[in-house]
Structure formats: structure tokens, C-alpha cells
Design a protein that fits this description.
Layout (H helix, E strand, L loop, with lengths): L2 H13 L4 E3 L10 H4 L8 E3 L20 E3 L19 E3 L8 H11 L5 E3 L15 H14 L5 E2 L2 E2 L2 H42 L1
Helix pairs in contact: 3-4, 4-5
Length: 204
């Protein structure tokens, strides 16, 4: 291959290498992996919003540089399973069918360990003004998410403040402490009940 041919080949390759791809508003029921996975070395932003997707996006884990994933207005639930992707720093999954906050947040925490921006507005699990949630519900929702994903910098459309981090740690540390206390009390009651039962059997 001469220098000119080599240069032309390089230009063609660079022209077909994308950092950003959008498949929004395509009515997709399946993720178009054939096209997406041609960009495993270069793709940084992937927009799959406003489709009819609900499949687990397992093969997206091959996108080494993907930092932003946009899944707004699809049919994803709390039980969606993501691949492990330490490159992801931003996830938008607004207006889906997420209704179990602890399950969903645990998945995000484990699979996207470096996430900084999470937007999940207009989901049942994210109560706010937009879907009829009260201020106290919205505040509790934010505190819970912040407590579970301490590296978050922006939740929905609002920056995470230091005072929120402090309150989130206090609130959910207290709840964890109360849960541990209840478990100990239940265990103690069970042991007492079993001891009384054993004493009764012995006396008989």
C-alpha cells in the first residue's frame, strides 16, 4: 500500500468513526447493535431516547469510551440490567417505567461506579412536581439517591449540594441503625420465645 492509498484509507476510517450517535425518535424495539458496535473504540455519547426499548443493553459494555447514555422516554423498568461500564459518567433515563427506587439505584451504583450525572425525572420512583410528588417525597428521594451514590454531582436537573450530602448521610445512617436495632430485637424475641418453649417442654 503506497503512501497516498494509506492516507486515503486513514481518512475513510476517520470519517466513519463517530464520537456521538443518535437513534432518537426511530420507533425502535431493539437496540441497533450492528451500527453501534462499529464504534467501540470511539463512541462517547449514545442517544436512544424516544423509542420503545425495554431490552437489557448488555452489549453496550463493549463501548470502551462511552461516557453518556441517553435512554429517555422508553419502557425500561427498575429491573433493567446494565453491563459494567466504568466509563459512564452520565445517564439520562427520564420518563420510563421505573417504580422501585432501591432496586434501580443499586444497579446504577454497581454497574456505573464513576457516574456523576443521573437524571430520572418523570418516573414513579422519582417523585417531583412533574408527576404529583410532594416536596417531602422529592426531598427524601434525593437524599436516598445521594446516600447510595455519593459521587453524584447532578441529580435530575439540580446540582447536589454539600448540605444535601450531609443530610443524606444522617438520614440513611439513622435508618440503617434503626433497621439493625429492629433485627436485633426480633432475634432476641425469637430466642426468648424458643427458650420459654423449651422450658415448658422440660417441665412437662
Amino acid at each position: 500500500m503506497d503512501l497516498q492509498t494509506s492516507a486515503e484509507h486513514k481518512q475513510v476510517h476517520q470519517a466513519s468513526a463517530f464520537r456521538w450517535l443518535s437513534f432518537a425518535y426511530q420507533g425502535l424495539t431493539e437496540i441497533p447493535y450492528d451500527t453501534i458496535l462499529m464504534q467501540t473504540k470511539t463512541l462517547e455519547v449514545l442517544d436512544l431516547s424516544y423509542n420503545i426499548l425495554d431490552e437489557n443493553p448488555a452489549r453496550l459494555g463493549r463501548l470502551e469510551k462511552l461516557s453518556t447514555l441517553i435512554l429517555d422516554s422508553n419502557n425500561y423498568t427498575s429491573h433493567v440490567k446494565f453491563p459494567y461500564m466504568p466509563s459512564i459518567t452520565a445517564l439520562c433515563i427520564n420518563k420510563n417505567k421505573i417504580n422501585n427506587l432501591p432496586v434501580f439505584v443499586e444497579e446504577i451504583r454497581r454497574k456505573f461506579p464513576n457516574i456523576k450525572i443521573l437524571s430520572m425525572m418523570n418516573n414513579e420512583a422519582a417523585p417531583s412536581y412533574f408527576n404529583g410528588g410532594s416536596l417531602s417525597q422529592y426531598t427524601d428521594y434525593r437524599h436516598y439517591v445521594i446516600s447510595q451514590i455519593p459521587g453524584l454531582e447532578i441529580l435530575d436537573d439540580t446540582e447536589v449540594l454539600e448540605k444535601e450530602r450531609v443530610q443524606a448521610r444522617k438520614t440513611y445512617r439513622l435508618q440503617q441503625s434503626n433497621l439493625s436495632s429492629r433485627k436485633k430485637d426480633e432475634s432476641s424475641r425469637k430466642r426468648t420465645h424458643m427458650q420459654r418453649k423449651a422450658d415448658t417442654i422440660i417441665r412437662q
